[in-house]
Every structure is written in structure tokens, then in C-alpha cells.
Amino acid sequence: MDCIAAISTPTAQGGVSMIRISGEDAINVAKAVFKPIYPVTDIDEMAGYTAAYGQVYRKGEKLDDGILTVFLAPHSYTGENVAEITCHGGILVTRRVLLACIEAGARYAAAGEFTKRALLNGKMSLTEAEAVIDMINAESDGYIAAAKAQHDGALSRRIEALCSRIRSAAEEITAWIDYPDEAEQEDEIVLSDREKELSDIKGEIDALLISFEGGKALRDGISAAIVGRTNAGKSTLMNLLSGEDVSIVTDLEGTTRDIVEQTVNVGDIRLNLADCAGLRDAGDKAEQIGIERMLRRLDNSRIILAVFDGSRELSDDDNSLIERLCGKNVLPIINKSDLATREDVISAVKTLGEPVIISAKSGEGEQRLLSEIVRLCGLKRLNPGEGFIANDRQRDCALRAKKHIDAAYDAICGGFTVDAVGVELEEALSCLYELDGKEAGEEIIDGVFKRFCVGK
Ligand SMILES: Nc1nc2c(ncn2[C@@H]2O[C@H](COP(=O)(O)OP(=O)(O)OP(=O)(O)O)[C@@H](O)[C@H]2O)c(=O)[nH]1
Ligand SMILES: [Mg+2]
Questions:
Q1: CB neighbour list of residue 63: distance below 8 Å, 6 or more residues apart
Q2: CATH number of 4-109, picked from 3.30.1360.120, 3.60.140.10, 3.20.20.70, 3.90.1150.10
Q3: Are 7 and 86 spatial neighbours (Cβ–Cβ below 8 Å)?
Q4: β-pair type (34-38, 50-58)
Q5: Which range, of 230-239, 279-288, 291-300, 365-374, averages the lowest pLDDT?
Q6: Of 33, 34, 71, 247, which is least packed with CB atoms within 10 Å of its CB?
Q7: Which of 226, 229, 236 best tests ligand 1's pocket when mutated (most atoms within 8 Å of CB)?
Q8: Cα–Cα distance between 309 and 346 in angstroms, integer?
Q9: CATH 1.20.120.430 domain position(s) in the chain
């Protein structure tokens, strides 16, 4: 393959920058721009995974001092010869070094082209390649660990195990079609065995699809809104959950107007929490707009934390909020437990479910609140080591595979011809091969690498 080069570090000022070159000719390109000084003076003497200090040149002019690291095919990131020149971190210097590489015969690498070559050279599967970009984009410790497990092949292994079960089921069914006489007396047993096996496979593909929700929540967080009447203690709760003074708290009704957003970790879950304006007959236009925003956010949130002041009789606003929240994914919270909690409030709020009684001010009841929030999120615990569906492309393949597995199962239960079962299983396999890249077309692969940055 032709030789590609790119700046692999961010285009910004820094201590050092790195230019990566990959391709059969990478070492020759490096020779044209880099003269080693120590410990060797000839790049040909460098073994793979070794480095040398030296000087970088462009058209005979010395550009910088630097370090050259050499990786020889197939033991490199891309599986090709790779040379990496690390120079001082100025943007201009780095660009000149790249230009020198281009003048020496390399061409500019496209986004993700190094990783694409790693995929094409069998260095990683498509799901492992996708995990590279997920690691780059990860914003939480939990998701870095999950993406790392994917990069180490967790999903690939899970898919392969599933494919292997489907293949065995398909092979047995094909054998049954090819030699029906031998199997005739055992028809019933064979089919009921296969029915059980397909039901297990169905369970595994369902579990795989459910893992998408866990992964998505880990990566993007879950949207949550804190709502309630004015002065119920919503902003105090926001500050308690975030552990920071993010929302203004006063004893004046209508303190919060704009939505205040904060990402909060509750156990393994990232909540994208919004503290909203309190519900009441708005005093002025700005507050009115704040309440409209709160209502929109309420409709668009996956979970709602509805706060009621347990020390006061419920107001008309509280009652209309209860009506509005009925049937939604809501956790009713009765606040101000440090003051006496009214029984009539508890029984009215129960319409929305069993309330959690807390004092946002003192933190009383916080542990129960946290576990109720986790329960409300309804996520099965994600075990990244088992592999999970990480994006819409993978999910689409898994959904198509599920459709064929379901059809195979229905065919076997409904007594349809055994050929139909075999065909459906083959189709399911094909979808799962596409998921992991074994049967993914060029268009799909290009779509994956479009999400990458240049230099990776
Ligand atoms: N005693 C007691 N007071 C609380 C508690 N939580 C909040 N408060 C007080 O209630 C008042 C209103 O609290 P906020 O958190 O600003 O209430 P809010 O619901 O955000 O009010 P708006 O922004 O006006 O809608 C403040 O004086 C808080 O100190 C609590 O658990 N116990
Ligand atoms: Mg507030």
C-alpha cells in the first residue's frame, strides 16, 4: 500500500509533536528527512521497536532535533512499516516536518487511515477499531474502562461465541436435512433439542441488545430533571447530588429561572441533571419562560426527580404537577424531613409511587435516594469485560440478526420446513459477521473511519 503520513498529536503548541508515517516505503521516507546521530547513524541498523536521536531535514535545511522510532512490519500498529518522528511541539515546525515527509514520497493520511490499515491488515476487528475512537472521546473513567475492554476484543469474543453456537445449530440442522432417514426416528428429540438451543441463542442476542442501553448510559449519561413547586428545595437537592454549589439557593420563591445543568455520577451512572424553575403562577415574563423550559425538559428527560416540601400543605401547583407526572418515569421525593413531615403530603404524593423522604439541606436520606435513582434508571449492570453494543451501527446489525434468529425459532416451533430454519440462521450469521467487520462492505468501513481524527 502507498505510504501515508500525518501529524498524530493535536495541532497545538506543546512540549513535543509526533508525525507518523506508515507503508512499505515508510523507512525510506524517514531516511530522506531524518539523520540519526545516537545510538546509530544509519536507519537501516535500527531494529523494530527502537528509537534514535537525530536531526530532521527538509531540502537540506535542518528543521529541528528529534527522535525517530521505527516499527517493522508486521509488528506495528498498522501492520506495515511505521516510522514516528517526535520533534519539538511548535505548530509550524511540525507542519514543515510533515511537508518534508510528503515531499519524500508519502501522501497525507485521511481521517482514521492508520487504524483502517490496522483493520485491513488483520491487526484488529471492526468493533476493536471502533473502540479506539470511543477511548479518544471518552469523558468518564467508567467509559474509558469499557472502551478499553472493547478494544481488547470483549465484544469480538462475545460475537464469536454467539456465531459459533449458531453455526453448530445450523450444521446440525443441515445434517438433518441431508440425512433425514438416519435421523428420522429421532426427529422429535433432534427438533426439541434445537428448539432449546435456539431459545438460548435468542436469550443471548436479547442480552446483547440490552447491553446497548448500559453502554450508552455510561458514555452519554442519562437525562434527568429536578422539578417541583418553588421553594421545595430543588436547587438544594441539585447541590447535594453534585457535591458542588452549582445552583443558587435562597428562601425567595422563584430563585431558579434558567435551567442549571450538571453531570453527576450516581454509582456507575452518569446523570445529566437539570435543576429547573419552580412551578407557580409566574411573577414576570422571564420566570414564565423558565417554567416553559422546565416543562419541555420534563418531557424530554428519561427520569424525573419530583420534589415536594413535606413541611407544608400541598399547593394547587403541587397537585397539578402530580397530575402531569402520572405515568411518567418519576421518583417522588418529599423534602425537608428535618422539619415535621405531613402525613397528608405523604399520602397525596404516593399517587406517583413510594416517596423517598429526605432532607436536602442536611443530607438525611441521601443513600436511599441514590439507590432509588439507580433503580429508576432501570439499567442492568454493565459488565464491560463481557463486551457490549457500543453504537448504532452495531445495534442495527444485532437487531437484524435477532429478526432472523426469531424467525428461525418460530419456524422450528411452528413445524415449518427445516430448510427455512437453516436459511434464517445463515442470514443471522451474516449480520453478526457484518457487526464485527468480517463481512462489512467498504461503505460500512469508510463510515466507521469518518468518525476518526486525522493521525489516528
Ligand atoms: N429545613 C430545610 N430547609 C430546606 C431544605 N431544603 C431546602 N431548604 C430551604 O428551602 C429554601 C428554598 O430552597 P431552594 O433549594 O432554593 O428551593 P427551590 O426549589 O430551588 O426554589 P426555586 O428555585 O425558587 O424554585 C431555602 O431557604 C433552603 O435553605 C431542607 O431539607 N430542610
Ligand atoms: Mg431553585
A1: 56, 57, 87, 93, 96, 97, 100
A2: 3.30.1360.120
A3: no
A4: antiparallel
A5: 279-288
A6: 247
A7: 236
A8: 10
A9: 141-217+391-449
Q: Whole-prediction pTM value?
A: 0.74
Q: What pLDDT score was predicted for residue 170?
A: 87
82-88 β-sheet, strand order: 34-38, 50-58, 61-71, 82-88, 16-22, 4-7, 107-108
Please check whether the domain covering 141-217+391-449 is classified as CATH 1.20.120.430: yes
Q: If you average pLDDT over residues 350-357, what whole number do you get?
A: 96
CA of 324 to the centre of ligand 1 (A): 22
When the pLDDT of each residue in the chain is averaged and rounded to a whole number, the result is 91
Cβ–Cβ under 8 Å, residues 45 and 37: no
Q: What are 22's three cell numbers?
A: 506508515
CA of 237 from ligand 2 middle (Å) equals: 9
**pLDDT tens by residue, 269-307:** 889 999 999 999 877 899 999 999 999 999 999 999 999
- Matching residue, cell 394547587: 316
Is the per-residue pLDDT at 439 higher than 90? no
Q: How far apart are CA 265 and CA 19, in angstroms?
A: 37
CB 276 within 8 A of CB 308: no
Is the predicted pLDDT of residue 364 greater than 60, yes or no?
yes
**Range list of H helices, 251-358:** 285-300, 316-325, 343-349
- Residue 287: phi and psi, rounded to 5, are -65, -40
Q: Which ligand is nearest to the CA of 260?
A: 2
More confident residue, 318 or 218: 318
CATH 3.30.1360.120, the chain: domain bounds: 4-109
Architecture of domain 223-377: 3-Layer(aba) Sandwich (3.40)
For a substitution probing ligand 1, which of 235, 293, 342 has the most ligand atoms within 8 Å of its CB? 235
Q: Which residues of the chain form CATH 3.40.50.300?
A: 223-377
Ligand 1: atom nearest CA of 359 is: 31
Q: DSSP states of 207-261 as a string?
A: HHHHHHHHHHHHHH-EEEEEEEBTTSSHHHHHHHHHTS--S---SSTT---S-EE
- The bound ligand whose nearest atom lies closest to the alpha carbon of 230 is 1
Q: How many CB atoms lie within 10 A of CB 171?
A: 12
Residues 198-229: tens digit of each pLDDT:
999 999 999 999 999 888 888 888 999 999 99
